[in-house]
Automatic annotation (TrEMBL):
This is EamA family transporter RarD. It comes from the Bacteria. The chain crosses the membrane at residues 16-34, 46-66, 78-98, 110-127, 134-151, 157-173, 185-205, 217-238, 250-268, 274-295. Belongs to the EamA transporter family. It is a multi-pass membrane protein. Residues 15-150 form the EamA domain. The gene is rarD. Pfam families: EamA. SUPFAM superfamilies: Multidrug resistance efflux transporter EmrE. InterPro entries: EamA_dom (IPR000620), EmrE-like (IPR037185), RarD (IPR004626). The keyword Transport applies. PANTHER family: ACYL-MALONYL CONDENSING ENZYME-RELATED (PTHR22911), SOLUTE CARRIER FAMILY 35 MEMBER G2-RELATED (PTHR22911:SF137). It is found in: Cell membrane.
Length: 325
């Protein structure tokens, strides 16, 4: 999956690394937040997150998004892509909130471990990309992990697979857009807002809405869903323009690792021997994938240095937006 603006041929910028750690760290700690919003149900939490994400994004866009960027973004093609992106991210958010509040944090973490591998599979199926041998090894190990976990659970790990598929699809769609985090969040949440508001009104008329009924603290926590959605996106965008894709690719494992640790240590979710074996296979797949990505990144940097030494046009060096494979 490509990251617009990420640097592929330079050494990591310390601030960029910190921004990346901040973004992935916040995402990794989300399982601590969603249970605080009970007794609100997952759909009410999702609807509130959409509404307050829109409010937050609109405020940020006033200060951070020039008018010219809106003119470039809002055309028929991009609007269709953003509509598709809004559907996939709503599915991802909703399933994740439900999983966390249903004591399935570990399975949710599995989804985000699988996501980079599934992104590669989508590249092969939809973009006709060719994989190196080590990438095929990584995919094979991930498939074996799913088989093992299916036997252990007694059914496929649907939560993990749905989260991975929805987020990989979301990343693929966003890859087709050359736009920043704030404006895309604004449009996506704006497209979802009428449905979210309609659902909240329905709950209100049915007397089941918890917003405004559970005290000031509960209401404040629901409102906070907007800022905590926007802040890690901004940190990620800042990191992506400052550090190489290989570094960003390694940092992404902070999120599922924190989720996994929270699920096992803090929430006390059971890990059977079969689940340890399944997760071990996934970790092995990611180790292979990361080693291959680091090898490719080092080779590109060496090629770039050689090209500079031979007087190549510096504008062709370290092209923006290369895949971390």
């Amino acid at each position: 999956m490509r990251v617009k603006g990420a640097r592929s041929g330079r050494e990591p910028d310390n601030r960029g690394v910190l921004y990346g750690i901040g973004a992935y760290g916040i995402w990794g700690l989300f399982p601590l937040y969603w249970p605080l919003l009970k007794p609100a149900g997952p759909l009410e939490i999702l609807a509130s997150r959409v509404i307050w994400s829109l409010v937050t994004a609109l405020i940020l866009s006033v200060f951070l998004v020039p008018r010219s960027r809106w003119r470039r973004l809002l055309n028929r093609r991009n609007t269709a892509l953003l509509a598709a992106a809004s559907i996939t991210i709503a599915l991802n958010w909703g399933i994740y909130i439900w999983a966390v509040n249903s004591d399935r944090v570990v399975e949710a973490a599995l989804g985000y471990y699988i996501n980079p591998i599934l992104s590669i599979v989508l590249g092969v199926v939809l973009l006709k990309e060719r994989l190196a041998r080590l990438q095929w090894v990584s995919v094979g190990l991930a498939v074996a992990a799913v088989v093992v976990l299916t036997v252990d659970y007694g059914h496929p790990p649907w939560v993990a697979l749905t989260l991975a598929a929805s987020f990989a699809t979301y990343g693929l769609i966003k890859n087709r857009l050359d736009a920043g985090a704030v404006e895309t969040l604004t449009v996506e949440s704006g497209l979802l807002a009428p449905f979210a508001l309609g659902y909240l009104l329905l709950l209100h008329f049915q007397g089941q809405l918890t917003y405004g009924q559970g005290g000031a603290g509960h209401t404040a926590l629901l409102i906070l869903a907007g800022p905590i959605t926007a802040v890690p996106l901004l940190l990620f965008a800042a990191a992506a323009t400052r550090i190489p894709l290989s570094t960003l690719g390694l940092l992404q494992y902070i999120t599922p690792t924190l989720q996994f640790l929270l699920g096992v240590v803090y929430f006390g979710e059971a890990m059977s021997p079969g689940r340890w074996i399944g997760f071990g296979l996934v970790w092995a797949a990611l180790a292979v994938l990361s080693a291959y990505g680091l090898h490719r990144a080092r080779r590109r940097r060496r090629d770039d240095r050689d090209a500079i030494g031979h007087g190549s046009d510096a504008g062709d060096i370290g092209s923006v937006g290369r895949s971390w494979e």
